[in-house]
Fold these 2 entries.
Entry 1:
Amino acid sequence: MGDERYAKELDVAVRVVHLACSLCRRVQKRLITNGSDHVSSKDDDSPVTVADWSVQAIVSWVLSDNFRDQKLSIVAEEDTQSLSTTESVGLLTAVTDTVNECLAEAPKYGLQGPKKALGGAQILEAISQCNSTGGPIGRHWVLDPVDGTLGFVRGDQYAVALALIEEGKVVLGVLGCPNYPMKKELLDHHRNQKSITTLSSVSSETWDKGCVMYAQRGSGEAWMQPLIGEDGKFAGKHSAHRIHVSSIDDPALATFCEPVEKSNSNHSFTAGLAHSMGVKKKPLRVHSMVKYAAIARGDAEIFMKFARCGYKEKIWDHAAGVVIVEEAGGVVTDAGGRPLDFSRGVYLEGLDRGIVVCSGATLHEKLIAAVYTSWDCSNL
Ligand SMILES: Nc1ncnc2c1ncn2[C@@H]1O[C@H](COP(=O)(O)OS(=O)(=O)O)[C@@H](OP(=O)(O)O)[C@H]1O
Ligand SMILES: [Mg+2]
Ligand SMILES: [Mg+2]
Ligand SMILES: [Mg+2]
């Protein structure tokens, strides 16, 4: 990748995201087979699972272990409030077991695990260590342990997203997409399945190959590696393929993706935009930052998210995806055409209306023009 400045950071980040993906796959399989135990609701009614806390704990632990000489700042989604009550002992035990089971596999990914299994208090400490609020100065790791938790509990798409911000700019992004197969054709196959319980009919090779994507700012390169299966070997860089955005710039041929839930993005507004710029295909509604992955890899050309007025987008929902799409050749801005600002703390402060992601400048200009002519705040 040329610039070696972040070589160790990128290497550790890619490995820990692979490790996190293996954890998530295991928990998702259990969740789907055993029913929905250990899915909790947060204050905003959004779901949180054993996987969200466990991934946050392992990423925090592995980063601390590998960068012992630094005072780490980690901005991440989850906190320990609902894990620390007396009623949540069972939940904390489930997280502890999941974390230890996963860290025991760390050497397979070229990472060191702890000398002895972590206890509940250490796990709570690892999770709550990720309480930074970011900002314009210095280095901040940014983690969404499970993005698209709703997709995760439904047995559908989700992502593990880790990024590094330095002086307010995203410099590294790693996106693990355990259910997003290496080949586009397999996605349609997966989408036709009701849930992973029905996947026994699919050969394990096709399903097992989820992927991890990554990019370093300024390299002009974005990469994708296959996830390894239960008994596979981690091949790291040797298994990486370059990825590029699509070359389609005719809206009539373009695919646009957006969140599944109407409550997360205004579907009728985006349908109007798509129509006015000449998009003909039906939207591809997918949970999580897999939407960024789809653009970076050339499986779709446009991603739009217009949350309701007053909702503030969080940096962990976008940081990793933005740098990967940009280095793969795409364009990411707010609806006014300005770059997203990762320097102002936990939220994308100053975001103009919504987020638009395109595979190239031609589609982006058309989309921004469509927003300009269609905007009516009462829509949102
Ligand atoms: N009201 C509202 N509006 C907009 N966005 C919201 C809202 N509530 C939550 N979120 C954030 O959306 C993240 C999930 O986005 P998705 O694109 O996966 O949504 S969807 O499930 O496909 O509808 C989700 O990320 P995770 O919590 O990591 O799953 C949230 O950070
Ligand atoms: Mg998220
Ligand atoms: Mg999340
Ligand atoms: Mg969440």
Note: Confidence is low (pLDDT under 50) at residues 194-207.
Entry 2:
Amino acid sequence: MSIKVVIQGAAGRMGKTLIRCIQEQKVTGLKLVGAIDLWDVPDIGTDAGIAAGTKEAGVKMSTDLAAAAPDADVIIDFTSHFGTSGNAERVAEWGTAWVIGTTGLSDEELAEIHKASEKVPVVMAGNMSLGINLLCNLVKEAAKALHAKGYDIEVIERHHNQKADSPSGTALMLGQAAADGAGLDLKKSQMDGRTGHPGARTKEEIGFHAVRGGDIVGDHTVLMAGTGEMIELSHRATSRETFAIGALNAGKWVVGQKPGLYNMKNVLGL
Ligand SMILES: NC(=O)C1=CN([C@@H]2O[C@H](COP(=O)(O)OP(=O)(O)OC[C@H]3O[C@@H](n4cnc5c(N)ncnc54)[C@H](OP(=O)(O)O)[C@@H]3O)[C@@H](O)[C@H]2O)C=CC1
Ligand SMILES: O=C(O)C1=N[C@H](C(=O)O)C[C@H](O)C1
């Protein structure tokens, strides 16, 4: 039997990619039962498959999450920090498994997700691709070997000109992996850009630099710079399908799990 999926943020870049991947069976065993977005979106009332540029889904884009979610097996959410956190209490009440790709949540908003995960299984990751989740392991390993030898660690991310949050969720995942390897506390080490006269770099800093332009899907580089050499560990996403396929696989994995907060490493077995 197919897993019943609601896409939250269905009219967005990721929402439409997810709907196309379901309809074109890029991940099998899933059925679209709800496609939800906000009232101001022109696609409301249109068949979700047609709106996403693929075959008809038999499901209209709607604003009514409460009508679709309780009977679904999983909600896949790529919306905004306030949209995701604002729904946490309702999702926990409905008991529907939840996959969250939304980035840019504050600590208070993340606390709402943690609370919901006491009642429902939740997979949350700033990047759902296999490549980035593997790269986090490589970054941790490299930082462990190099930071103690004096190498400086910086994260550079590049995204399209519509991206709302900075640093990206992926940059923070990579920064966290580097901090874990280097034995640093990211909350204290994070240095977002540099301007004015910040002075010489300290050894505890992990710098984050955000570039925004055009239609860049998502590029991330972790730079480890020593004396006389530097290493760059990079990932380049060339299609949003890599995130969508990861999220749909997370959707299949999370249904039937115990309540708790999981990540893509749990899903991928990394
Ligand atoms: N984890 C991962 O692998 C990835 C994560 N992302 C993240 O996913 C999020 C979405 O990205 P993207 O698709 O590019 O963004 P878009 O802005 O293209 O799409 C988001 C959609 O969600 C809608 N929306 C906002 N709030 C709500 C709500 N409360 N209920 C229903 N719909 C809502 C928006 O409507 P409106 O336009 O009216 O605001 C918009 O249509 C971002 O946080 C991004 O960083 C993106 C790619 C991969
Ligand atoms: O907003 C995006 O587009 C992306 N967001 C995620 C992030 O914040 O890292 C993942 C990917 O890089 C694309």
Note: The chain has two domains: 3-124+240-268, 130-237.
